[in-house]
Write a structure and sequence with these properties.
The chain is of the alpha+beta class and about 160 residues long. It has one domain. It has 7 helices and 4 strands. It has helices at about 15-25, 40-45, 70-80, 85-95, 95-110, 110-115, 125-135, and strands at about 5-10, 30-35, 60, 65-70. The chain has a 4-stranded mixed sheet with strand order 2-1-3-4, covered by helices on one side. β1, α1 and β2 form a beta-alpha-beta unit. The longest helix is centred in the middle third of the chain and has 14 residues, at about 95-110. It is globular, with a radius of gyration of 15 Å.
Length: about 160
Amino acid sequence: MIRKLYVFYDGECGLCRHAKAWLESQEQWVPLQLLAYQSPEAARICPMLPQLQAAREMVVMSDQGGLYRGSDGWIMCFWALARYRGLAYRVAGGHLRKHAATVYRLISERRYSISRIFGLRPEEIPELRRRATARGLPCSTGACPVTSGPQTPPPIPVPIPKRKE
């Protein structure tokens, strides 16, 4: 049984920071611990974040070790929220899943541009800014390419826990 989800997001992205604040404001049936993937605490909790390409897409890890990336990560976040669990079941179990993946990819690839358009600025975190600049994050242009092919880890299926009747 999943008792906690760790959500690793891009701490340099205004849109991501606002999504974090929204998730934190919701009633949670399963606690969410939201961490910038660039933080030392995130690296301690999930040392394989670089291999999971956390710079390209959100990564969610359950306390049981399950890993969910991208739209599957969002499905798990919705599953953890009291008001949105039904949505998680509908999206995960049907034809909406591929559409959710498309929408997620389109937003994720443009998250910095979307942040600028809507004036969503991340809080200044000097250590993250310094490390991001030193590493040359793939999204410095405002468009984050999401690659496909052998260099991208395969999608991780979302095993949404069964509904209790």
